[in-house]
Amino acid sequence: MKIKSRSIILFILFVGFIVNTISNVKAEDIKPEIYGVRINIYNHLLGSGYGTCSVESPCGFELRIWVSGNFTSLDQGDVDFKTAGVSQSVDTAEYDDSRILATGKFDSIFPPMGEYTVAVIDADGNKSDPFPIVNLTDYPKDAPELISPSHNSVIVSTRPTIEWEAFQSDYDANLVDPWSYEINLEFPNINKRFTAFPIQPTETSISYDDPRWSADDTGLPEVLPDLELGNMYHITIHSNHSVAYNVNFEHHRSDIFFRIVDKIVNIDIKPGSYPNCFNNNGKGVIPVAILSNGDFDATQVDPSQVNLNGQKVKVVGKSDKFLASTEDVNTDGSEDIVLQIDDIDNAYQTGSTTATLIGKTNTGLNFGGTDSICIVP
């Protein structure tokens, strides 16, 4: 009986020791744990050109970190995000329902190559083990430059074809997900935005009548309204490269503004001849008549503000005189203006069938017009 009683006493003492030991293990001694991370790396370009990480063209990251632990208080200093062993600047950190969202900008020109890891510190000051995110070995490049309408351009067409440079859509020599690109066209005058999606990586243009356009407010396909004369419009190009289950690259090019001319006018390339054929060999000039009508006086055109497919009116003499003259080209009783446009070598592509003229009057009115052409080899 004594032996049995002694065994019971020893067992009770042992259980008490274990309970006491467990009770002395404080919550603040338990490391937080990371059990999943997704990273979104982005570059936001404004207008034209190619940017790096800067105030004007931010290049940064968003981390979504799934955690367990006490995160009743959290600030940006509690997220230790490293690339190739170097800590990156975390600007914001928020905890919500077992997940931390952290954002920041890279401390280098481009996202660094190498091992990406993250560790977090909980409200008790305990730091998790570093969690490996990805070993980055490549970087899909910027969103492409818009070719037409170009940034800050004035165009004539009210239903233009949108053209851009080819997407650099490869990662580690492999094409990325082809459902990666979209084009947004915003109409500030009616407070509406339309999206064309998906844009394939091999595409470099989309027509105004393409069936992929849909209205953002409904998500349903919709025919784009005509652009209105004198109004400003805004295009954004997005690329979204999912290169791994937890790694995504987003590139945006926004603030691409263009406007429609205030007035569309009649022009006549090589007046008196049809078809309007010429050699694009950089020799001589191309005569272009801008015609007056009831509400447009072509004699008020400012030759210094006129271009045909980007080519200017020819200037001669020491006084920089523009080659321009007035005459009634179409014998309607109104004076027209005839401008001699510089024939710049290779200004037109072989097979081009139209040319567009853009200009301003002396009073600042934007105008434009188009006419047929043919390029003679």
Helix-strand blueprint:
Blueprint: H1 2-23, E1 33-46, E2 59-68, E3 79-83, E4 86-87, E5 89-96, E6 99-105, E7 114-120, E8 131-136, E9 146-148, E10 153-155, E11 162-164, E12 170-171, E13 174-175, E14 181-187, E15 192-199, E16 205-206, E17 213-215, E18 232-244, E19 247-260, E20 263-264, E21 267-269, E22 277-279, E23 285-290, E24 307-308, E25 311-312, E26 315-316, E27 321-322, E28 324-327, E29 336-342, E30 354-360, E31 366-372, E32 374-376
Parallel strand pairs: 1-19, 10-19, 20-31, 22-32
Antiparallel strand pairs: 1-2, 2-6, 3-4, 3-7, 5-6, 7-8, 9-11, 11-16, 12-13, 14-15, 14-18, 15-17, 18-19, 21-23, 23-29, 24-25, 24-30, 26-27, 28-29, 30-31
Structural key phrases:
single chain; 377 residues; 45% strand; Immunoglobulin-like; mainly beta; 10-stranded mixed sheet; 3 domains
Q: Count the helices. How many?
A: 1
CATH class category label of the largest domain:
Mainly Beta
State the shape. elongated
Largest sheet: 10 strands, mixed
CATH fold call of the largest domain: Immunoglobulin-like
Record field, number of beta strands: 32
Radius of gyration: 33 Å
The CATH level-2 architecture of the largest domain is identified as Sandwich
What's the structural domain tally? 3
DSSP strand (E) fraction?
Answer: 35-45%
Oligomeric form? single chain
* Low-pLDDT segments, ≥5 res: none
Distance between the amino and carboxyl termini: 119 Å
Helix content: under 10%
The chain-level mean pLDDT equals 86
Helix/strand/pairing category:
mainly beta
